[in-house]
Design brief:
Layout: H1 2-19, E1 26-39, E2 52-64, E3 67-85, E4 99-117, E5 123-143, E6 149-168, E7 173-185, E8 193-206
């Protein structure tokens, strides 16, 4: 399923880009992001240190004077969260035998991106992005006494949105600092949905 969704997303983006290849100032792009993350699992204490996250995106851009817009697809690794829950009812742990919970999430993305330069087409810019997220979440839990344990997995559709500021050195190369929020739907895991914030840097190549 994961591979199928990825192929569909990439196929849609490539098809759109191919139809737009006749644009006077269009470009393909690929970028990679490394980021720290913060996942909003409420009521988790004694959390492990924040894990790393990241993304790889590709797509097509249209340029018109100081504005750029386009379509993007790719994959995002939302990292891992782990901590202890002391609030679960006594029959499934409880304050005297709390649960240790860990979860990892990631998924395919398909969306749009926009960039506004401060002045000329290259140099400093503000960027934004938003779109669809198909997330996969895997959770593992066990009590501290070693009496109970379990696993769960969920796949569902959510969304993402983000903004950043960066610098384009020329027509082909740029860097940026970004904040992105990914809203994952995960039926049967935690509260059935959760958000993950990514704070990171991106290197982009356009051709």
């Amino acid at each position: 399923m994961k591979i199928g969704i990825s192929k569909i997303a990439i196929g849609v983006a490539v098809a759109v880009a191919s139809m737009s290849a006749i644009a006077a100032d269009g470009q393909f792009f690929i970028n990679g992001e490394a980021a720290g993350q913060d996942t909003a699992f409420n009521n988790l204490r004694d959390r492990d240190p924040t894990s790393w996250a990241g993304a790889v995106r590709l797509g097509y851009l249209w340029n018109a004077q100081s504005f750029t817009w386009g379509v993007e697809t790719g994959y995002v690794d939302l990292g891992k969260i782990a901590g202890t829950n002391y609030d679960v009812v006594a029959s499934i742990g409880g304050p005297q035998d709390p649960l240790r919970i860990s979860a990892r999430s990631g998924g395919e993305i398909l969306g749009g991106t926009f960039k506004a330069h401060f002045g000329d087409q290259y140099g400093w810019f503000f960027s934004s992005r938003a779109g669809w997220l198909h997330s996969q979440t895997d959770e593992h839990w066990h009590d501290t006494l070693g009496l109970l344990s379990g696993r769960a997995s969920a796949n569902d559709n959510g969304f993402y949105a983000g903004a950043g500021i960066g610098y384009d050195f020329n027509r082909h190369l740029g860097v940026s600092l970004n904040y992105d929020l990914y809203h994952s739907q995960a039926p049967g895991i935690w509260q059935g949905h959760f958000g993950t914030s990514l704070y990171g840097g991106t290197l982009e190549y356009r051709f």
